[in-house]
Specification:
single chain, 258 residues, mainly alpha, 11 helices
Length: 258
């Protein structure tokens, strides 16, 4: 169990009081020093992805630079949700903190909602950093669709976090951490985020049509460069479906295992 002291919500606490208490606790669990560090690391990773990947492509043209730059934010959001979150939850399960948290007199879906909130706050600033670095590095003039960009950035973050949370609560902690490590390579090297899907074999393109990674990247890309890329309704439906599955399975696991 964690040594972090947290004021427990009373039995008759309002949902809002319970939620804010859980958010404070989750923030304290990550650590007042570690939390800003995670945000800084995400920002450095945003710059590293855009600049570093650019070195791999000699004489990069503007179209390729735009595709790379608008894909980097998706990689960052997915990394938080599919890698950092499962490892954090798996560690909490292993040391008993997670079980104690679920024993509190609050609705268990609020436990998930609090985690989604905290990790979203950690992940989203990296999108802004990636946009600024891309604009400076490649002299890109991005055309923002702000309503789409904000909505999709939040949806991608929540989806990735919910799926990562689902992995952590339905699998043994060590296996969850192992899978999260594998997902890093899958997202970085085998997902059409920084490169067009047409470069993959046809069968693998079909697989990605049903996974959340490519739809997330294309929707976020449409929000960042609306003059070049257009959102697809099917991508939105796929992303919403994965978000719903992640949330429902996580909540069911929270209730069932308590």
């Amino acid at each position: 169990m964690s040594d972090v002291a947290v004021p427990l919500a009373p039995l008759r606490a309002t949902p809002w009081t319970a939620y804010t208490t859980l958010v404070r606790w989750q923030t304290a669990q990550i650590g007042t020093t570690l939390l800003p560090l995670v945000v800084v690391v995400q920002a450095l990773m945003a710059a590293g992805l855009i600049i570093g990947f650019g070195f791999l492509i000699p004489d990069i043209d503007r179209a390729t630079a735009l595709h790379l730059s608008t894909g980097a934010p998706t990689i960052l959001l997915l990394t938080v949700g599919l890698v950092i979150v499962p490892q954090s939850v798996a560690q909490a399960r292993a040391n008993g903190t997670f079980a104690y948290q679920r024993s509190l007199p609050v609705a268990r879906p609020l436990v998930l909602l609090a985690d989604l909130t905290v990790w979203s706050v950690v992940a989203l600033p990296s999108v802004a950093v990636a946009v600024v670095v891309a604009s400076l590095r490649y002299d890109l003039a991005l055309s923002f669709d702000w309503p789409l960009l904000v909505a999709i950035a939040v949806l991608v973050t929540v989806t990735a976090t919910a799926v990562g949370y689902m992995i952590a609560v339905i699998l043994p902690p060590l296996l969850a951490q192992l899978i999260s490590q594998v997902l890093v390579f899958f997202v970085l090297l085998f997902s059409p985020i920084s490169f067009p899907a047409s470069q993959l074999p046809t069968w693998f393109q079909t697989v990605h049509d049903w996974l959340p990674v490519r739809p997330a990247a294309d929707l976020l890309r449409a929000g960042l460069a609306s003059g070049v890329y257009q959102p697809a309704t099917r991508d939105l439906l796929v992303l919403l479906a994965w978000c719903a599955v992640g949330v429902l399975v996580s909540v069911r696991a929270l209730i069932k295992r308590g």
